[in-house]
Each structure stands twice: as C-alpha cells, then as structure tokens.
TrEMBL record:
Protein name, entry field: DUF4239 domain-containing protein
Naturally occurring in which organism (per UniProt): Nocardia albiluteola
TM stretches of this protein: 6-22, 178-197, 203-222
InterPro entries from the UniProt entry: DUF4239 (IPR025333)
This protein's UniProt keywords: Membrane, Transmembrane, Transmembrane helix
Lineage: superkingdom: Bacteria
A family per Pfam: Bestrophin-like
C-alpha cells in the first residue's frame, strides 16, 4: 500500500512539473485563454479511470464468484461419487458410510450456508461429520480385491470433497484488496466532484444529469458489493449442487434396491 501511495504522489508531482515547465517552453500561440480545456481533460480522464477501475474490479469479483461456484459443484460431485461406491460395499460399512454422507450433505445445506452468510465461517459440525466419514471408509477391511478397490475409490472421492471444502473455506473469506477499494473510492470521488471543479452552472438540466451520474455510479458500486463475497449478501453461490446430490442419493438407493 505504501509503495502504491508513493508512486501515485510521485506521478502527480511529475505531471505538475511537466505541465509547468512545458508551459514556459511552448509557444504562446498554443495557450488557451481559459482553463476549460483542462476541465475537459480531467473529465475525460475521470470517466476513463472510473470505468477502467470498475471493469477491473467486476472481473475480479466475477472470477471469485465463478471459482466459488466451481468448488461447490466439485464438492457435490465428489459426494455423489463416494456415495455410489459406498452403496456396493458390504454391510455394515455400506449403511454407516451412506448415513454419514447423507448427514454431511444435509449439514452443508442447513448449517454451512447460513453460517457463511451470517458469520463468515463454515460449520464445525459438518467438518466433523466429513472427517468421520473418511475415517469410516479408511476403517473398511477386506481381503476381497473388489472391496479394496471400492475403498480406494471412495477415499479418492472424499479427498476431492475435502479439498473442495477447503477451497470453499478460502472462497468465503475472499474480498477485493484494500488498495483496490481505495482506488475505486478515489475514482468515485473524482468523478462526482468533476462538475464542481469544472465550473458547471447549476440548472435543472445540470442537476438532473448529475443525479443520473450518481445513479450510474451508485448502481455500479452496489453490484460490486454484491459480488464481492460469494457466500454472503444478496447475490450468493447457491447450494443447489448439494440439493441435487441429496436427490441423487435417493435415486442410487432406489435403483440398486430394485435390482
């Protein structure tokens, strides 16, 4: 942050120095009789700067949102894969592992999502259930190569689930950096102050146009705020993938039970 501030101040000093020194060296015919050109230049620069910063921040927030959604889907798919393999294991391991996977998925929906939204953290109960499920799969013992293969496949699927959950832990804490917040705030203030600094005359038309400018700026900032945290606020990553996993569990049990 300190380096960025130093560079910004140095650039401002350099720009002012170039302007003052250049004014002494340039022909008098190049000079304007007023500073309207400077106001136009600052206005164009303010619009370009604000647009570029907003676009950059929106891309970052959207990428974070998409990554969070991808990790959620990966976690749910891993659970379904593990459940499918566990359903062909011998009893009593089959029933125990299936029950733990169902319990974990329910806890993700009923506990993880509300806690991420309200408290910015994941449910320790759900984490304990997942750890217990992995321990249950690890504890499966058999000399049958088929069961051994099923155990290995289930462990591999649960490893993906654990990694995706870890990614989800990181995703819910992601936010745009403080420097970008400062730059965004600076661009907003610069853009809103431009009509004043440019000497625009107050009239009903200028007031309405300035109000519309505020609407655009405020709407852009609001959308950034909504996308900033993928699991909190208004626009959040859905737990639909886990809802589908629960439905898939029932289908797996139904199909194999009819065979």
């Amino acid at each position: 942050m300190t380096q960025e501030l130093i560079v910004a101040i140095a650039a401002a000093i350099l720009a002012m120095a170039v302007f003052v020194i250049g004014d002494r060296l340039r022909p008098k015919s190049w000079r304007h009789t007023d500073d309207e050109a400077a106001g136009t230049l600052v206005l164009d620069l303010s619009k370009t700067f604000f647009t570029a910063v907003v676009a950059f921040v929106v891309v970052i927030c959207w990428q974070q949102f998409q990554n969070a959604h991808s990790h959620t889907v990966t976690e749910a798919k891993g659970l379904v894969d593990a459940y499918w393999v566990a359903h062909f294991m011998p009893e009593p391991d089959q029933q125990r592992i299936e029950g733990l996977l169902q319990a974990y998925t329910h806890q993700v929906v009923s506990q993880d999502w509300p806690m991420m939204n309200q408290h910015g953290r994941l449910s320790p109960t759900a984490q304990h259930t997942l750890d217990t499920a992995r321990e249950a799969v690890t504890a499966v013992r058999s000399t049958d190569p088929v069961v051994t293969d099923q155990r290995s496949r289930a462990l591999a699927s649960l490893e993906k689930v654990a990694e995706a959950r870890s990614d989800r832990t990181l995703d819910q804490g992601h936010s745009i950096s403080g420097f970008l917040n400062v730059v965004l705030l600076f661009g907003t203030v610069l853009l809103l102050l431009n009509p004043v600094l440019s000497g625009v005359r107050v009239s009903w038309r200028s007031v309405v146009m300035t109000g519309l400018l505020g609407v655009v700026v405020g709407s852009a900032l609001l959308e950034i705020h909504k996308l900033d945290q993928p699991y909190a606020g208004v626009v959040v990553v859905s737990h639909e993938a886990f809802d589908q996993a629960l439905s898939r569990y029932q289908q797996i049990s139904s199909v194999t039970g009819n065979e």
